[in-house]
Design brief:
The protein has 123 residues and is mainly alpha-helical. The protein contains 7 helices and no strands.
Length: 123
């Protein structure tokens, strides 16, 4: 699964970076996926993911400490998003990499990272 270079700008502008009316329009589109019924259906899978990530924390510990952001708080939402949009397990590492790049504190560095994962030039 690759990401076309022309799609990267669409992904770099998060909904949280928009003000009304754009934010309101985008939120309305996204909210359709978060109905009470859909969230109720997702609950067992979210709980399973949560338990799996928590159970794996000791495997990531160094000197008795573990980075909760890296090993729980970060993978939890991206895993739920992948479930929500139907990303196959075999492609989730790509999504995890893209999301690291998209959420980077270094916006200039984000494009080459996403390009590297997608096989594009990242210009």
């Amino acid at each position: 699964m690759g990401m076309d270079e022309e799609l990267i700008p669409y992904l770099t502008e998060a909904i949280l970076d928009h003000d009304p009316p754009d934010h309101s329009r985008l939120r309305k589109l996204v909210s359709r996926a978060f109905t009470v019924r859909r969230i109720t259906e997702m609950r067992p899978r979210v709980e399973e993911t949560c338990k799996r990530l928590l159970a794996a924390l000791p495997d990531h510990a160094e000197n008795g400490a573990v980075d909760l952001i890296e090993h729980f708080a970060y993978p939890m939402p991206i895993t739920v998003i992948c479930d929500l949009v139907g990303v196959p397990e075999s492609e989730r590492s790509l999504w995890l990499g893209w999301s690291h790049g998209l959420m980077s504190a270094e916006p200039v560095a984000m494009r080459p990272r996403c390009a590297r994962w997608s096989g594009t030039s990242g210009r």
